Amino acid sequence: MRIDKVLANLGYGSRKEVKKLLKDGAVKVNGEFIKDAKQHVNPKKDLITFNGEEIQYREFIYLMMNKPPGVISATEDSHEETVINLLEAEDLVFEPFPVGRLDKDTEGLLLLTNDGQLSHRLLSPKQHVPKTYFAVIEGEVTEQDIVSFKQGVTLDDGYKTKPGKLVIVKSGLTSDIELTIIEGKFHQVKRMFLAVGKRVVYLKRISMGPLQLDETLELGEYRELTDEEIDLLQNL
Question: Which PANTHER family does the record associate with it (predicted)?
């Protein structure tokens, strides 16, 4: 990889700024000054130092965000604020993207990464990765709804969903529930409840596969995954 790309990826500046740092003699590779921005290095094997301090290169970034409502799960949009707009510059250099999507008004767990292979595995219909949501429902959720969801319900377009696990936390004029599904159809949770004559008034994703939402994260906040969390995802 070109040395300027390595440094830019790690947040040392734009390609232009990195080029100046190289010319100023701030960078050594295996003890030798490198001034040519086009010089290729192996960031996994070569010893790269910046002003005498060793650089730890990494290829991938894994972020957990507590997505706020009103923000869309996209990398860019000409009219709406996106989850990428919430990231710090030091994380943006890795060019992460959201793994899957949450509706604009839905809160909760959103994974962002630049690891395309992991993203593909998590989103592949063949993997059946479970996703659990907490929701507030207008109307009384009943045992019959649990049975209906377990059998799969027919959506407004005629599609019959795969079985979902519905847990009633509180039932009444409004009901609190948790729903685990293994698909990701457009507005699926909302449409599943519409299929049984009820309306979702609040929706929050609390888990995706083995990854649980860190409840200490405020809306709009994010953090890097721990090594343990990354291993759980890699070993799916």
Answer: PSEUDOURIDINE SYNTHASE, PSEUDOURIDINE SYNTHASE FAMILY PROTEIN-RELATED
